[in-house]
Every structure is written in C-alpha cells, then in structure tokens.
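Record type: monomer structure entry
Structure origin: computed from sequence
Chain ID: A
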Amino acid sequence: MVKLVYIVAVPGAQMLDVSGPLDVFSEANVQAGGRPFYKMSIVGRTQAPIICSSGARLSVDVSIDQAKERADTLLVAGAPRITELPRDARMLAWLRTYSLSSRRYGSICTGAFLLASTGLLDGRRVTTHWNVADALGNTFSKLLVEKDAIYIRDGPVCTAAGVTAGMDLALALVEEDLGREIALNVASQLVMYFKRPGGQAQFSREGRAVVSGRSALQELQRWIAANVTDDLSVSELAERVGISPRHFTRIFNQEVGMPPREYVESVRIAEARRLFDTTALGPKKVAIRCGFSDTNSLRRAFVRRFGVTPAQYRTRFGPAD
C-alpha cells in the first residue's frame, strides 16, 4: 500500500527542509525495487509557488483546500523567519485535523513553531534547531524541548533539528517502514550518515554562557573564564567570594542555573573547543591549557557535552592541514 507523505511548506521555507526528506523518501522507493512505496506531496497555503529563503521558487503540489487525502506521514518544514509570519487560523485548523488523522506527524527545524501553535506538541518531547530551541521552549511552555537531539520520536510525533537533520529523521522513518537494509542503502546512495554521531551541540557556535546572578557571582564568572587553569574547586571559589561552600553552591545554582562544577567544566570545554577549532594543538596541550588534569578527563568531558570525542570533533571542524 502506497504511503502518502505531506511536506507542508510556508512562505520563506528553507529549501533543504523540504527537498532533503523528499530525496530520502524518493531514494527509498528506488531501493525498495522501484515500487512506489511513498508518494510525496508538497502542501502550501495556496497552490501558488513559494519563494524560499534562498530566493528559489518551490512548486506546490496541492493547497490545504485540495489536500483531502489522509496522509501516512505529515511533516512541517521550517523557515528562518517563520515566527514573523502572521497567524493563519485556516492553516492551523488544517494542520490540526490532518495531523491527527495521519499515522505520524511532526516538524523539521523551525517548523516546530508552526506545529506547536496547534497544541499538538503539548506535553511531547521535541527538538528543533539549536539556535532557536530556547525560544521554542519559552514560547510554548508545555513542550519538553531537548536542545541537543538530532531527531526525536515521541509516540506519533517526530521532530528534527535544523535543516539537514530532516534527512536523518526521514531515514529513521524509512528504517521503521522498510527495514534496516533498505535504509542503509539509502544512506549509502545519498552519502549520509546512517546514524549521525553526537548531537546538535557539536554544531552550535554558541560561546560561553552570558554571566548572570548578583554582581559578586558575575565577577567570579568573568574570573573563571580568564583563569581556567587555576584551582576552580567549589571550596576555592567559595573562599574567593567569602561565603561557605554549601551556601555558595546553593546561590550559584539558583542564580546561574547550574552547579559550580558543571559551570567550570562548561567554560573549560568551551575553551578546549575554541582551541580545537582554531589551532593544531594536540589533546595533551589542549587539556593543560584548559585546566583538565589529563587527556582522559578532557575526552570524558567532551563526550558528555558533544557526544563525540575530541578526535572526532577535530576531524569535522578543525582547521585544514
């Protein structure tokens, strides 16, 4: 039985949010012997072509008024400026009706903002592009946003992180439908990871956290950033601000949003990442310059934060030889 896939696109859509998953489903048809296992349709507010964020024109197969057939899979593509679009009651009503009638539904990248506006993501674990994950959670407080995930499946809901992660999600859905061998063949043909190592954090260009809390804590955070190789134990930091370690830990957690040890590690990891991005220093020298006791400590912290080892990270993002 042919499975209908709706990709919903809005004005200013990111072309790859639409074309990436479509190519995965299309290649799955080829790898499944050429039989039309998936039938894909781009759905728009109207049938007029959509001008994408790149300026390219995207043809629409059916408008929301014409899309009457029940979809097996419905995915909302993202758009860089999707939060600036006017609220469209008819689109939201259509999305709610056809999402609930489909076997599975979800979003790619910032498409989560549009789908969340229907209320269908309330109480669900979801993800989106790392750069807008906080905004998504702040705008829709009932969502359980996981900032580092590449994609998430929560019941019928499937959401993907930014842009190319839509292909990762589509490949996971192909594996679910057609099995591991066909999904592996699709990944091979499209020269993509079958299971991408690590999470979104490795792609984030966010720097160190903005200092926060009372003035004494803000000054301490600036001092930590400038002195990553010093003894930054809780007892030493507490002594620096003149309070007991227990009281220091409590107020730091309350006002900065994480325990002191976690904050110190995040600062050291940010500096290590900067060095891996911009220098050819080996792990041992990076560990020394960032205050880690040895390369194993650096490696463990790096894997906790980014889901990949320093060596794997440098292969992808380090300076060219």
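Annotation 1: The CA atoms of residues 271 and 290 lie 6 Å apart.
Annotation 2: The radius of gyration is 23 Å.
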